[in-house]
Amino acid sequence: MFEAKFQTFADDASSGDSAARLKALRAELKRQGLDGFLVPRADAHQNEYVPKCAERLAWLTGFTGSAGFAAVLEKQAAIFVDGRYVIQVRGEIDAKLFAPLDIAEIAPSKWLVQHAHEGARIGYDPWVHTSAQIERFTKALAEKKIELVPLDINPIDALWADRPQEPQGAVVGHPPRYAGERASAKIKKLRAALKDVDAALLSDPHAICWAFNIRGADVAHTPIALCFALLPKEGAPILYIDDAKLAAPVRAALEKFLTLKAPDALIGDLAEAGRRGATMLFDSATAPQKLVETLRAAGGKPRLEDDLASLPKAIKNTAELDGARAAHIRDGAALTRFLAWFTETAPKGGLTEISAAEALETFRRENGDLRDISFPTISAFGEHAAIPHYRVTEKNNLKIGRGVYLVDSGAQYLDGTTDVTRTVVVGRASKQLRDHFTRVLKGHIAIARAVFPKGVSGAQLDSFARRALWEAGLDFDHGTGHGVGAYLSVHEGPQRISRLGTTPLRPGMILSNEPGYYRAGEYGIRLENLVIVEKREIAGAEREMYGFEPLTLAPFDLNCVEAGLLAREEIDWLNAYHALVRKTLSPLVDAKTRKWLREATRAI
């Protein structure tokens, strides 16, 4: 009945081969006169989701998370992950080969200082590190005179016998009715920001796809084309992209406003620009050190700044916002049908984490508009729900019984990208669970109700989501919210709600609101909606004020709510939100689901 077409549940971890692969890597390093090697989980664009050919960290260590870093020395090796993956990494790697470390507690550079000998030569691939990353390493390692050595060929690529080919996903145009603005207008805006430089090198495929109104299929779940672009102050932009990705009509449409070149022409063009003494902007967050150093070595002047398109892309236009609202209504109806089905089916037994994920994808596909899921569905029961970025596989798949089930999922539609998390209980919720769930809900409501002046950043709002947890001596180890793209990445900057979110929030930005709590070995709770930053009119206000418009529409599990912990204004918000969900989605679901929805959104 149900099936998954946009995700697989195969066990991608390859820890069984790690010993042989690590031994081979060390032998190759010794042959090259190197004492170590850096292995980031990164491609040439610092993408979150990378093509299979760039999964070098997974190939070497077995770790399959979306963020990580390994450092290999002659006798020791370590893998560094953030709070999302401290549990997962231990289940995927061989800890006898790689010491699993929390990057918040010890940085890779500090570990190298502690374990590498003085004067060691550490190799790295300049295509998968930014200049800023290498600069930080260089400064930290200077005290022991450790030298970082850029390599022409990544040694892992030489050892990886069955390494997948570079992707060649088809590029398609993204119509103005969804984009809201023609590529020529976007290019004009970006060019106006060049000011005293000769050109900008665009290295973030999300920015390039947004600027040129194209979408691709080179990585899983994010419709981007892997490419680079050069935006000169005068003349046509240049798009460096594999011609195999371009059908004739797409090529003809692009050539109306830009020049197409093969990717291997980029190094030569940068060297030529350098010889002319050009000053060029590079995105400090995504530009490979290889490109920056190519320009510098030829005599050019690289300037590392924020990506030109980052902020314009984050502030959605009217068409993008209207599309996001429409996409979330359809998506909310699909999720509500799933939740109603799950509520009836799960207590009977027979469901697993995989079959539940397959069911949810099927409900989404049935609306007829699904292009992909926006990330692998986190379908997690019991102790697995305590792993924030858990990925179910055929190997770890749990049967769903009485207890907590967390599902974090999203979809890609032409008019919008969704991301939503709900936590539900099968059976009765314990007093402890109701307490923890309600504290997370209080944090969610605090963000949803927040009103703040222009200039406030996500860092200033982050603690709103944590107060109720802090009062009980609890917390969570991830940010409260991330930016979301318009039929692009489900994780988009520069906006975010976290301790690191320093970009002021502006109307039109889309963010997630997802506080959580994770009790290792028992259960996890996360409650996530997407919201739009909007202007708020307040009588007598002396400053321009903003708040959040809810995008996501789906009920929260009232069986987990301890109403006595909620203040009157929090109850009012929850009842009003559920009334909106019921009114909006009831016409879009079947009679059986509609009956369930009335009960699920009852006033408390």
Which helices and strands, and how do they pair?
Blueprint: H1 18-31, E1 36-40, H2 56-61, E2 69-73, E3 77-81, H3 88-92, E4 99-102, H4 108-115, E5 121-124, H5 131-141, E6 147-150, H6 155-159, E7 172-173, H7 176-179, H8 183-192, E8 199-202, H9 205-212, E9 214-215, E10 228-232, E11 238-240, H10 248-254, E12 259-261, H11 266-275, E13 279-283, H12 289-297, E14 301-305, H13 310-314, H14 318-345, H15 353-365, E15 372-373, E16 378-381, E17 403-409, E18 411-413, E19 416-417, E20 420-426, H16 431-448, E21 452-453, H17 458-461, H18 467-470, E22 481-483, E23 492-497, E24 510-513, E25 516-519, E26 523-526, E27 529-536, E28 545-550, H19 568-585, H20 591-600
Parallel strand pairs: 1-5, 3-4, 5-6, 8-13, 11-12, 13-14
Antiparallel strand pairs: 1-2, 2-3, 7-9, 8-10, 10-11, 15-18, 16-17, 17-20, 18-19, 21-28, 22-23, 24-27, 25-26, 27-28
Structure report:
Residues 324-534 form the Peptidase M24 domain. It comes from Methylocystis borbori. The mean pLDDT is 96. A hairpin with a 3-residue loop joins strand 2 and strand 3 (77-81). The longest helix is centred in the middle third of the chain and has 28 residues, at 318-345. Helix content is 33%, strand content 20%. The protein contains 20 helices and 28 strands. Helix 4 runs parallel beside helix 5 (131-141). The chain has 3 domains: 16-159, Creatine Amidinohydrolase, Chain A, domain 1 (3-Layer(aba) Sandwich); 172-312, Creatine Amidinohydrolase, Chain A, domain 1; 315-600, Alpha-Beta Complex (Creatine Amidinohydrolase), CATH 3.90.230.10. It is of the alpha+beta class and 604 residues long. The strands form 8 sheets. A 6-stranded mixed sheet has the order 4-3-2-1-5-6, sandwiched between helices.
